[in-house]
Known about the structure:
Strand order of the largest sheet: 3-4-6-9-10-11-12-13
CATH topology of the largest domain: TIM Barrel
Amino acid sequence: MRNSQHDLLFEPIDIGPVTAKNRFYQVPHCTGMGWLRPKMAAALRGMKAEGGWGVVCTEWCSIHPSSDDLPHPNAALWSNQHIKDQGLMTEAVHDHGALAGVELWFGGARSANHYTRETAYDVASIPNLAGHPYQPRSMDKSDIRNLRHWHREAALRAKAADFDIVYVYATHGYLLSHFLSAETNDRTDEYGGSMENRARLLRELIEETKEAVGDRCAVAVRYSVGGDDGESDTLTNERRDCLEMLAEYPDLWDININNYEREMGVSRFFESGSLEEYMAFVKSVTTKPVVTVGRFTSPDAMASQVRRGIVDFIGAARPSIADPFLPKKIFEGRLDDIRECIGCNICYTGDGLGTPIRCTQNPTMGEEYRRQWHPEIIAQKNSDSTVLIVGAGPAGLEAARMLGQRGYRVMLAEATRMLGGRVTREAALPGLNEWIRVRDYRVQQIEKMNEVEIFRESELNSEDVISTGVDHVVIATGASWRKDGLGRSHPFAYEASELQGNILTPDDIMDGQIPSGHIVVYDDDSFYMGGLIAEKICLTGQQVTLVTPADVVSAWCDYTSERFYVQKRLLELGVALQTGFQLASYNGDDVRIVNTYTDQTRAISANALVMVTARQPNDRLYRALETQWQEDSAIGIRSVTRIGDCEAPALIAASVYAGHRFAREFDMKPDSEMSPRYE
């Protein structure tokens, strides 16, 4: 039964001429699908609507070929041919009684137009803000008129595609942000100078969009109220002044902060609801409904925001990805069944990589159309086969959960007392406490199932496995960090003579083996682990130097939008950083490193060396069983499968996906019609 304190979350809310059935609002967010994969995008958005979201929006939707973001796949309404594609999304959303919103977008200086080869436009000819060697053209009056025309035409196409909410996008460093800011707008015409002039284009686009589609569509504005690191008080105050000036123009305000890395900050650095301090004033200056994000997963926190008059809608991107059925579960009082977002930002990596969205918590995300996966529904069992899963890390737990949901009898054996494998270990590192949700959600679900038995402190050899008499065996025994230096920049192990002394791995550090003195952390992994190990050691009072062959620290963290904060944290802690250096040797006293460009060598006195390089699959049990079951049919085992890091070390998201996919496909007959689709 639903808690009555949450009833207000399910009140209908008017947005101009349309009404949302509740306060759950999936704000625009990227999917890595865009106009390239319209059927995949439509199925993803439709699943959100099925899960109970009152409003479901697109990703950023380009209004014209001069605003092209490939390889980041955006939506598009360039011409009438896109109406049909976008109509797939609105139909999927409307089928479940939700409103469909579209975020009309013009990138300005953030558009390199690699695909279209069109000239980009901005308030001035400034450097491309995505780091490409291009500059946009400074807009003249005719360019502004063209932009207004393109925006109106895109709004009309949005209406024809049956959207209910049409956005004017005025934040995140795109074109309208630059018109609004005195730091970038130095025009001397009616679009520059005073705040009123700098806001003129935004006001015109709001008015013209309402004139074009306002009879049936609500008009929303996505707007920043500040919050930039290092932003002047003057600029922040101007943002507020502008909002007050335009307060009643749109039908809804979608409020965020201009610093995207801060707005969608990872849980390692930012807590849920961290934007409230910046935008709490908004409802005091406008009568129009307000939505903002905050990585909300707790219905109590959501209800509190509404009750205290902070927002009218609970905006979400990442929580709606981790659990598309979050609203329905709150409505039904099934809070224990919510897959809470862990704030790892793996979902966001798809945007930078130009690939469909992924999620650590929800392995079905992005597979709604391609594989026809549903986050809450799975086929029932096809036989009475029994399954033994060895290893209760993320892959083993997910496989056990889903096999149990299908109705199979499952034995889950874990060698230690602790469930969760690498998730439990890594969640103890600085700032990663929310990652434990990966384990807790799955254990909680499994404990409700009579079909799944958990055996802790059960380290099994091949004979033990055979003696269980099960039909199928799944090996999910994970991987261990290597000590021998094999890594991305050194694709073979070091000779024993090259590495001597106190050499440790992340596993050792996570086990509590913290050395004393000056410690060198060698990071050839370039994701989160190297920085976290350096931070953990530093917090014990030791001196730390982090060495990496890469040109920057934690380079892959660019994709999760946290690299800036990783490096900031390490510098604040006093960690010495040596970028662009490869490990040459360690003799127990000195770590010798060599510059990756010049062959310059340097020696660092060190009491210990921590290798963050590569991982070795723990597949010994798999290899022993693989030989036995294939050569001796009398043992009764029908299949032996390895999944997750035991097969190929990767992201936690990949391990969860591997466990989920195994359970989905287990005991199923191949169906050519169910092969992945890529439209």
